[in-house]
Amino acid sequence: MAASSESPVLVLGGGLMGLAVAHQLARAGQAVEVLSRRRSEAAGFVAAGMLAPHAEGLSGALLQLGQLSLERVPAWVAQIEADSGLSCGLRPCGIVVPFATAAERDVYPTAAWGEALTREGLERELPGIGPGWQAGLLFRQDGQIDNRRQLMRALERACVELGVRFQEGVEVLELLQEGDRLRGVRVRDAAATVQTLEAATAVLCSGAWSAQLLPQLPVFPVKGQMLSLQGPREALQRVIFGPGTYLVPREDGLLVVGATSEREAGFTEGLTPFGQRQLQAGIEALLPEASQWPPMERWWGFRPCTPDEGPLLGPSAVTGLWLATGHHRNGVLLAAITAELLGACLQPGGCSPAQQALLNSFRWDRFNG
Ligand code: GLY
To answer: Structure pTM?
Structure first.
């Protein structure tokens, strides 16, 4: 359903999904207002920026969604770059998944989409790879984007250029309804003033915090700790996606290292010695020389996870409230298709049958029996 041109669509959350959806709606001529509590906590700033449906070993509808999004990324990025005048740092560099044995490689869920590598092939693709890896899969179609330093900034600028309004430091306290229809939201602004914003249409993009706003959403945080190192510019050309640790080389040699996956941590903030040691051990196993590279930054964040690790997309139980949340490990990859689907939902004509079929796989209530 379309919102009237006078009342803006409220986007609840200024992270990657919020920005991507706001950009899409603004391009379609919609008035949009983004409410953001603290943009720095958004998973879009925390992620490593991998575009990795195959390297992640996805399957079923999530693999299909990921592959569709991967196809759309070049055009999506080109549009953001045109609207913002800024580069997004897209790097279609391929990703290698290393294995201890060829037998492990051959049963990987997405093996059919990759190129099988022997030890010799691994050494050719990843000079300096650790000795523990005897086989690999090269996914040339996977890649990365510099989400932390480039994509988020470019997307925000593109939104501003298209007239999207931003309210920063605003916490959405409550959704307001009239019967089962959205009426607006109650917010606390940066000056701690509580007020009501009327809205007939909103998109919930609140990531790991989504269930705090709509408790029936099965979204919970999975903490990830990360770090970066400064390597020589050409040292590593492809992403290495190891078990428990991955190494993502940016164009300028910065190596982004991720990530712990801590389900028990809840919203506990901060780095832990255990988590950081896990990353160090992963670096040592995957690319021993990188252990000598100077450390740059360490950080953590919260992935929005769901019981089947797929996102929640499309309508909610509240008429006028739409969902774009729960992207877990695949938010950067899925931002392009998420924006497209939500954009279609909010257009007067609604979704195409193909889009509707896709959305059906990612309904918020698919876990209810
Ligand atoms: N996309 C990888 C991760 O969430 O760690």
So the answer is: 0.96
